[in-house]
């Protein structure tokens, strides 16, 4: 198998400064000196007032080399083209690949790997890689491809499957626990991690969205997932050429590591401290593995110390093409963290990987080939014996054999033989038939009947059991209904009391009443922000009750709804939602318009084809009535019609590809909206529970 040896490629990406820092709150502490030699180098200058805080205060300029450095202005597509595309190309060719992002919390890891939720152009490496891979697979018709994805989250040394099909997780602990198994060949297998098939980009993006949503829901306000856990999104591709028994299997890990900052900075107590310890431990083990790999004569590499390093074992110093992106926030507060990220990156750059083409023989395809060989041998046998052989004996032959056996058994002559010729199939059949006759000399009808009885009897029992179950279920439903009715009564009473109190209050009451009635009228369209007709079919595929409903048995109280509407209007993301809604409306209009145009062009082409057929008929009739030479010549009219068809086809093609592009963008926008809505519901939930606490 072909092998590619190369060191891990390391890139850096500098995060744009926040608005506060640009306004001069401390200024940028880093001189960005980028020299474009074969490698780019990054120079970090530490301001004097910070230098004395370091153990080593002699050095104030640090220099680090990277494959390429992306500055604040770098766009997502450029980052994808440089970093992930070459790896994706290798994966399509049958090699394993890994892209991982490393850096402190808030330095832009998740933005780089997954993308931002604001704009379509903010898509990160994962969605772009999916688009690219499915695009390439469609173009290549020489092989048959199958694609699966998995999404693993590692938090406090436990793995969780983010693509659990039952996805009703409100806490991380509800998701299936993933464990590591090692086989005799020291290969790592992840038990309980589901592999979901994705036949096209849309399915893959929906799975990615499901995973991201599960990840977001599992966050507690204390645990902002992206900073506290590692996430590994893996694309598994297998391919084979038709008729060949060789399969290529490759996988591409896209990894968003936890924040690399040191504990002191997080300044947190209790629960968070163990968590920070764990996260830092797993990054510490990652660092140990990398140091061990960089040393020339180390035989033992401590992969087994953490789940993270076990899963990424191949990616680090193994059979894989690996690329790392170090994300840096270069404002004053974070200089020390940035320097430690760069140091880590320099160590990673020393590691050599050996990627091997992953090919294997598929047993099922071998079976197909062997079957063909058997058929060839049968044909050969037929040639030699002059008789055709099928694998089954014909009905006629079987009856003939039965007669032969019967006469043979009845014949009392000790010298009588049963002669069926040199045909193994017939000989086998005779033996089987004799065996049956020996075991069941006569099969009486009575015996058969007696076997049937118990089955009916058991059916009756099963029926009674079923009835009991249904009764229980009915009782359960009755209880549920009673509970709900009581809840409704309470709600009604609350509302009446509230109105009564309002009427009792003096001067302000009229105003309040008016505002209340306005709000009640508004409530004809509850959660208006969440109705997106066009996204109907989509949202049903990722169906979740908002968090609050889940806790209160699927009811959101009036007060709570009211608060939610107000909260939603003031929420920062409501602008994003409105923008996206407008954009979606626009896109839907465009798609609709394009669809109509496509239909027009289609009918136009059909009409032109009809005209050509007419023309053929006319000319054929003409040829019969006066046969002459010129009818064999080209028909200019037909030629013109064909040209027109070609033109129409061209415009159809361009419109269709635009149509497909728009569809992908619409799907993405819908995912973004869902995401922002999720976030808003989540923020509201946190706010609401805090308000409730304050009231108590």
From TrEMBL:
Chief place of localization: cytoplasm
Q: Which keywords accompany this UniProt record? A: ATP-binding, Coiled coil, Cytoplasm, Cytoskeleton, Microtubule, Motor protein, Nucleotide-binding
Q: Return the InterPro entries for the record.
A: KIF6/9_C, Kinesin-like_fam, Kinesin_motor_CS, Kinesin_motor_dom, Kinesin_motor_dom_sf, P-loop_NTPase
Q: Where in the cell is it found?
A: Cytoplasm, Cytoskeleton
PROSITE patterns in alphabetical order: KINESIN_MOTOR_1 (PS00411), KINESIN_MOTOR_2 (PS50067)
Question: Which amino acid positions bind ATP, per UniProt?
Answer: 103-110
GO MF terms here are:
ATP binding; microtubule binding; microtubule motor activity
Under which name does UniProt file this protein? Kinesin-like protein
The record's gene field reads: Kif6
């Amino acid at each position: 198998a072909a092998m590619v040896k190369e060191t891990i490629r390391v890139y850096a990406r500098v995060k744009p400064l926040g608005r506060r820092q640009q306004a001069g709150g401390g200024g940028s502490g880093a001189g960005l000196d980028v020299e474009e030699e074969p490698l780019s180098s990054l120079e970090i200058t530490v301001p004097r007032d910070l230098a004395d805080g370091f153990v080593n205060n002699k050095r104030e300029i640090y220099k680090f080399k990277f494959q390429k450095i992306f500055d604040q202005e770098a766009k997502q597509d450029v980052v994808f083209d440089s970093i992930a595309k070459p790896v994706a190309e290798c994966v399509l060719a049958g090699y394993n690949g890994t892209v991982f992002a490393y850096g402190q919390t808030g330095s832009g890891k998740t933005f780089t790997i997954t993308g931002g939720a604001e704009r379509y152009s903010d898509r990160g490496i994962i969605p772009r890689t999916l688009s690219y891979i499915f695009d390439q697979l469609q173009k290549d018709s020489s092989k048959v491809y199958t694609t699966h994805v998995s999404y693993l989250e590692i938090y406090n040394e436990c793995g969780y499957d983010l693509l659990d099909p039952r996805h009703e997780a409100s806490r991380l602990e509800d998701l299936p626990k993933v464990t590591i198994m090692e086989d005799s060949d020291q290969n790592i297998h992840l038990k309980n991690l589901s592999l979901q098939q994705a036949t096209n980009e849309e399915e893959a993006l929906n799975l990615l969205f499901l995973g991201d949503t599960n990840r977001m829901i599992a966050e507690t306000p204390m645990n902002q997932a992206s900073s506290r856990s590692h996430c590994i999104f893996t694309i598994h591709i297998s391919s084979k050429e038709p008729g060949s028994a060789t399969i290529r299997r490759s996988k591409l890990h896209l990894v968003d590591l936890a924040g690399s900052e040191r504990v002191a900075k997080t300044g947190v107590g209790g629960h968070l401290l163990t968590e920070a310890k764990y996260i830092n431990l797993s990054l510490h083990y990652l660092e140990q593995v990398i140091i061990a790999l960089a040393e020339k004569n180390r035989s033992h590499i401590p992969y087994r110390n953490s789940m993270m390093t076990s899963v990424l074992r191949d990616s680090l110093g193994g059979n894989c093409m690996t690329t790392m992106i170090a994300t840096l926030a270069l404002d004053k507060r974070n200089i020390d963290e940035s320097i430690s990220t760069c140091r880590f990156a320099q160590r990673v750059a020393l590691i050599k990987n050996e990627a091997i083409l992953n090919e294997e023989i598929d047993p099922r395809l071998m079976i197909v080939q062997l079957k063909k060989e058997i058929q060839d041998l049968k044909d050969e046998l037929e040639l030699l014996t002059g008789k055709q052989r099928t694998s089954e004996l014909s009905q006629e032959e079987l009856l003939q054999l039965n007669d032969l056996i019967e006469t043979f058994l009845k014949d009392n002559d000790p010298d009588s033989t049963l002669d069926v010729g040199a045909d193994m199939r017939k000989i086998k059949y005779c033996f089987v038939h004799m065996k049956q006759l020996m075991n069941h000399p006569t099969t009486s009808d009575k015996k058969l009947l007696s076997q049937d009885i118990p089955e009916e009897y058991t059916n009756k029992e099963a029926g009674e059991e079923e009835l009991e179950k249904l009764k229980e279920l009915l009782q359960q439903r009755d209880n549920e209904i009673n509970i709900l009715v009581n809840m409704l009564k309470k709600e009604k009473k609350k509302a009446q009391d509230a109105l009564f109190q309002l009427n009792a209050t003096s001067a302000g009451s009229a105003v309040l009443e008016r505002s209340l009635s306005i709000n009640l009228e508004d409530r004809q369209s509850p959660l208006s922000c969440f109705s997106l007709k066009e996204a109907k079919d989509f949202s049903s595929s990722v169906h979740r009750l908002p968090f609050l409903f889940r806790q209160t048995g699927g009811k959101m109280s009036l007060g709570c709804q009211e608060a939610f509407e107000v909260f939603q209007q003031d929420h920062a993301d409501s602008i994003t939602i409105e923008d996206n809604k407008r954009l979606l409306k626009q896109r839907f209009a465009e798609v609709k318009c394009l669809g109509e145009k496509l239909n027009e062009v289609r009918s136009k082409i059909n009409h032109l084809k009809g005209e050509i057929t007419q023309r053929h008929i006319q000319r054929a009739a003409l040829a019969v009535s006066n046969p002459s030479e010129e009818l064999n010549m080209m028909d200019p009219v037909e030629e013109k019609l064909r040209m027109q068809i070609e033109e129409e086809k061209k415009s159809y093609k361009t419109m269709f590809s635009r149509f497909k592009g728009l569809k992908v963008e619409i799907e993405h926008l819908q995912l973004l909206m869902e995401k922002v809505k999720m976030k808003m519901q989540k923020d509201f939930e946190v706010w609401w529970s805090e308000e409730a606490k304050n009231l108590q």
